[in-house]
Specification:
Layout lengths: L1 E7 L7 H11 L4 E7 L6 H7 L3 E6 L13 E2 L1 H6 L4 E6 L5 E6 L2 H9 L9 E5 L3 H12 L3 E6 L6 E3 L5 H6 L2 E4 L25 E4 L8 H7 L4 E3 L2 H17 L6
Parallel strand pairs: 1-2, 1-3, 4-6, 7-8, 7-10, 8-9, 10-11, 11-12
Antiparallel strand pairs: 3-5, 5-6
Helix pairs in contact: 4-5, 4-8
């Protein structure tokens, strides 16, 4: 039996376990998908040691960047993004297993936001600076959209919520929430942007998928804004992860 899993903390909100186990059952694949909830990335090595039959892993909050030092190599996209959400276990002819990091978040995000974009959507704000935000930045760039990060505290190359002036909001008509604000069970939370400056020209995209409509999205809809949650992105990145696990060739190094 093949074994796959998800590494992160916490994992109570996880979609992947149910998605993959249902996929395995529906397609008669002899495989199992497990959650590996670890409170520290230092426990990652123990997960690998205790599960020698692993074929691949997904990585979620907060370890998409922290996991990189534990890997043997990175796919070029993952290297440029600086974050990993898929790990492929490659075994060479001598029997040595190497862990290679990939990023399927960028595939899921790009394909799911692309239908919403028009020529007027030239600039974006990315709320948050974690691992998922890096994939969003990379994906927007590939679509020809210039993006800026927004952080709670001053950081190099970042705006803060206090600097989101009417001019900034008018110019940046795509706003992507990559923070956990508003995720179940904390559904009454949302990023502190000036929602009164939104218009039907704006897109609010929330990577959160539970609840279906976050407070961030609801406040946008009140101003006629186009909104979308992260469920389609999640499904698309999961399918891309499966393709990576199954179709990447065996290393000969």
């Amino acid at each position: 039996m093949q074994k796959y899993g998800l590494v992160g903390f916490p994992l109570g909100h996880s979609f992947s376990c149910g998605f993959f186990n249902e996929k395995f059952k529906a397609e008669n694949i002899d495989a199992q998908y497990l959650n590996f909830e670890i409170p520290s990335i230092k426990e990652f090595k123990q997960v690998i040691k205790d599960n020698p039959e692993l074929n691949g892993l997904n990585v979620t909050i907060p370890y998409k960047q922290q996991v990189i030092p534990f890997l043997d190599d990175l796919d070029e996209d993952a290297r440029r993004i600086g974050a990993v959400n898929v790990i492929k276990f490659l075994t060479n002819p001598s029997g040595e297993t190497k862990l290679i990091g990939y990023n399927s978040d960028v595939i899921g995000f790009t394909e799911s936001i692309k239908p919403l974009l028009t020529p007027s959507h030239k600039k974006a704000l990315i709320l948050g600076t974690g691992g998922a935000s890096k994939a969003v930045f990379y994906g927007l760039k590939s679509l020809g959209v210039e993006a800026k990060y927004v952080s709670r505290s001053p950081k190099e190359f970042c705006l803060t919520y206090e600097t989101l002036t009417p001019k900034v909001m008018e110019e940046h008509t795509v706003i992507v929430n990559t923070t956990p604000l508003g995720m179940f069970p904390n559904v009454n939370n949302c990023p502190n942007i000036p929602y009164e400056l939104l218009s039907p020209r704006h897109i609010l995209y929330d990577l959160i998928y539970n609840p279906d409509e976050t407070l961030f999205m609801a406040k946008g809809k009140a101003h006629g804004t186009v909104v979308k949650n992260g469920l389609e992105m999640l499904k698309l990145q999961a399918i891309a992860a499966w393709d990576i696990w199954q179709n990447i060739t065996i290393s000969k190094d």
